[in-house]
Design brief:
The complex is a heterodimer of chains A (310) and B (504). Chain A is of the alpha/beta class and 310 residues long. Chain A has ten helices and eight strands. In chain A, α2 links the parallel β1 and β2. The chains are: A alpha/beta (310), B alpha+beta (504). Chains A and B meet through α1, α3, α4, α5 and α6 of A and α2, α6, β6, β7 and β8 of B.
Chain lengths: 310, 504
């Protein structure tokens, strides 16, 4: 009797699998999942009323370390589009989530998989991916989103994916994209004007997140608190960093909110530099819910820090 | 039956679709961008040559055109496509609309300057494209190779009792154990499936010679319909929480005793497993599988294996976000081997009786509660994990151990559990405590409990040291004694290392 019960117990799951009816794939709105909040902001601006957007990150996380929550899986399972930054930025969590989602529409190479780095030339492409250099990204530095001009490419890629998915809304998506790009162009001109005092200013940050930003606004990204990408600083590294900062008169220490304050604060105290906390995606600090607000915050804070020292 | 099963597998495998490679597309985009830049320079050089010729002729209307140079820069903005080197709006304005009517010499200087700028940008672009191309070139030789990683795990340790008093494989006293050298290979097979293999070599406890085993070698579908994933081959079956995790990925040094005793270490099986994600807004996953063994010890089935001599298992799991920072994950698993044949051989008991396993049944309830603050989850977390197992095996018993005496069947119900708390207080440091308690699955009067404080130092993502002390108390175990063990585990990884869903 017991044996029969156990046999039944083993067969029931198979029957459940075979009898389950999947939820309808079609829905009124286009369901978009983005890895980061800046991509979510872009998708909302381009997609308008036709899209429903969910970001895996809330804005405060490390861009390389979004927790792999099983609660993401049903959301990704029903997604029409999955939008990622690319350049291997999301390698620590996205491939596993994609696999767990069992959604063939958003797998690599499928139309629903949107790699926003398409068309962007990466910086700092490593000559070797040996871990001696830390947790390097084989395709280059993925933090291009902090350069608003490059962010425009991401916006265009999102628009193209939306048009491909729902060509009936092409006019609307194109109109939304153009309006948002025009708004962004105006802001870029404004940011470049505001950022003139930043030209040539040296700064350090916790992680190699500011290379594109520095290039766009003429700053000198002097070094990182981390020994190598993803590798915690050693006492010797901090000592050397402090010495070289003093020699080179580096006035700014940037701390990204997902990293602890202790070491950057100590470096700032010992070098006389100004410590500022800057978000790396919308929502990283209060009042930065959109990409434009975030860039406003970054530029204003950076300029205020530089001008405050004069 | 076999034909039906094979047909189902084949049908499911070919219902999926494929991958595409984006790397080449990216290089192509860059090359196109470079070509456009070169085209732009040629056009501008042509314009300048024309303007120079016109200046020499001294035509006033052409001089006027110099101030508004044929609109060419407007139509083909100099630093074109890959946005990277695109001029800012202010710069574009400067290029397209030179300031009002400068003198001809000044205009020419300005043109030259513009040309130099563009040339400089093109050179920079070439350099950057070159970097990307170089970065891709280095993969060319190994382009068809799978991702390869090598994981090594060594454990120097000291145990206060000899192995005869602890019942362990490893000797007492000082021991330096190369627990595993694990070669991991993984790649897509085709557009419909991925495959991976884990080949393991470890040192024999007595001779020290390396013994080689295929821990896993499996194929897994990538895009079956109806939320299904099929895995086949040799693999660690999804059962409970830690039985399908490789040794070096465990949160502590040694696999919990209850998993060793009730499962047989890792849930290794040769068979297939189907996973189904319920199409619900809430995460609910169901796994069911069938295989010819489960755990390290195979059945001795003789010349013909009947269907009821196979192992069947399933696991249902779900997850709740209690707050954005706190989550609860739980699962319920079951395993049955309806007719076990001599699994583990003759099991001699302390009272002299001999048992042979005839039927195997195990139930498992697992629970993981995580506090993982979103903002600094890489630096801080608190995890409580626990697993409760119930073994309800049936044995054929020879009460005296003397051949020819009357045999009878006995079902032994035994419980066992482990529970651990791991506090990560730094990106590199985690401190934890593991508690274990179990009844022997053949004789539930024998009880073992163990207490293990430990600390982990993750020097980097690929290099980790862990120090663990374990006090093991054996209650009612014939000839066995309590013991203390201190172990230092050093694990490192070279090459590729994927972050799998199961190891989250």
């Amino acid at each position: 009797m017991k044996l029969k019960m156990f046999r039944l117990f083993s067969v029931i799951p198979l029957l459940v699998i075979l009898c389950s009816v999947p939820m309808p794939a079609h829905a009124a709105k286009i369901r978009i999942v983005t890895t980061l909040t800046d991509l979510a902001d872009f998708a909302r601006n381009v997609g308008g009323d036709q899209v429903e957007v969910y970001s895996l990150a809330t804005g405060v996380e490390d861009t390389h370390g979004i927790p792999m929550k099983p609660s993401f899986v049903p959301i990704m399972n029903r997604a029409d589009l999955l939008i990622e930054v690319g350049f291997d930025m999301e390698h620590s969590f996205l491939p596993a989530l994609q696999e767990a989602s069992k959604n063939p529409r958003i797998q690599v190479g499928k139309p629903g998989y949107v790699d926003c780095s398409k068309g962007i030339i990466p910086r700092d492409v490593p000559k070797s991916t040996d871990h001696y250099a830390g947790d390097v990204h084989p395709y280059g530095n993925p933090h291009y989103m902090l350069d608003p001009v490059l962010a425009k490419t991401a916006i265009k890629n999102i628009c193209n994916a939306l048009v491909e998915f729902a060509p009936q809304y092409q006019a609307e998506f194109t109109r939304n994209r153009d309006a948002y790009l025009a708004k962004l162009d105006t802001k870029i001109a404004e940011w470049e004007r505001e950022a003139r005092p930043l030209k040539g200013v040296k700064f350090i940050a916790y992680h190699e997140e500011w290379n594109y930003f520095a290039a766009r606004f003429g700053m000198d990204f002097f070094g990182t608190v981390e020994l190598k990408p993803g590798i915690d600083p050693t006492p010797r590294h901090i000592e050397q960093l402090i010495t070289s900062m003093k020699t080179e008169h580096v006035p700014i220490v940037v701390r990204e909110p997902q990293f602890p304050e202790k070491v950057p604060k100590r470096i700032a105290q010992q070098t006389g530099a100004t410590l500022i906390t800057l978000p790396i995606m919308p929502g990283g600090v209060p009042n930065t819910e959109t990409y434009i607000k975030m860039m406003d915050y970054i530029i204003h804070t950076m300029v205020a820090a530089v001008q405050g020292r004069k | 039956m076999k034909t039906i099963l094979i047909s189902i597998i084949m049908f499911l495998m070919f219902c999926s679709s494929g991958f595409a490679q984006t790397l080449e597309e990216r290089i192509k985009v860059l090359e196109d961008a470079l070509k456009k830049q070169e085209q732009t320079i040629k056009e501008q050089q042509k314009i300048i040559e024309e303007l120079k010729a016109d200046i020499k002729k001294g035509k006033p209307e052409e001089q006027q055109q110099m101030a508004q140079p044929k609109e060419a820069p407007k139509e083909t903005p100099p630093p074109a496509p890959p946005e990277m080197k695109q001029a800012t709006p202010a710069e574009q304005q400067q290029i397209a609309q030179p300031k009002e009517a400068p003198a001809p010499a000044a205009k020419e200087t300005q043109k030259k300057s513009t040309l130099e700028q563009v040339q400089e940008q093109v050179e920079q672009l070439k350099e950057e494209v070159g970097q990307v191309v170089e970065a891709q070139k280095k993969n060319i030789l190994s382009v068809f190779n799978p991702a390869i990683g090598l994981v090594t795990d060594v454990i120097p340790s000291y145990t206060s009792q000899p192995s005869t008093k602890t019942g362990k494989d490893r000797p007492g006293g000082f021991d330096f154990w190369l627990r595993s050298v694990e070669l991991d290979l993984a790649a897509s097979v085709d557009p419909f499936a991925r495959a991976y293999a884990v080949l393991n070599a470890s040192a024999d406890p007595v001779t020290g010679e390396a013994s080689f085993t295929v821990e896993e070698a499996a194929i897994q579908s990538t895009s079956l319909p109806w939320n299904l994933t099929l895995k086949a081959g040799r693999f660690f079956a999804e059962f409970g929480r830690l039985s399908y995790i490789h040794d070096h990925e465990l949160p502590f040094v040694y696999r919990p005793l209850v998993l060793d005793e009730y499962i047989g270490g890792e849930s290794k099986t040769d068979g297939f497993q189907l996973n189904f994600l319920f199409p619900l807004p809430h995460y609910l996953s169901l796994t069911a599988g069938i295989g010819d063994q489960f755990g390290d010890t195979p059945n001795d089935v003789g010349a013909f294996r009947h269907f009821n001599q196979l192992n069947f298992w399933s696991r249902m799991s779900t997850y709740f976000d209690l707050t954005p920072n706190i989550s609860l994950e739980t699962g319920f698993s079951g395993l049955i081997n309806p007719s076990t044949t001599d699994r583990g051989g003759l099991l001699v008991q302390p009272d002299g009786s001999i048992m042979i396993e005839r039927q195997r049944r195990v139930l498992d309830l697992d629970l993981t509660v995580r506090y993982q603050p979103l903002r600094n989850n890489q630096f801080k977390s608190l995890i409580w994990g626990a697993e409760l197992l119930y073994s309800d095996n049936c044995y054929l018993v020879n009460p005296t151990g003397i051949p020819g005496k009357a045999l009878f069947n006995r079902t032994v119900g035994s419980f066992g559990l482990y529970s651990y708390l791991a506090y990560k207080f730094h990106r590199q440091w985690t401190a934890g405590f593991l508690y274990q308690w179990l009844e022997n699955p053949q004789n539930n009067n024998i009880k073992i409990s163990a207490y293990s404080p430990y600390i982990t130092w993750a020097i980097s993502h690929w290099n980790q040291l862990r120090l663990q002390y374990t006090y093991t108390a054996r209650n009612g175990a014939f000839l066995l004694r309590d013991d203390s063990n201190i172990s230092l585990q050093w694990s490192w990884i070279i090459g590729s290392h994927a972050h799998g869903w199961q190891e989250r």
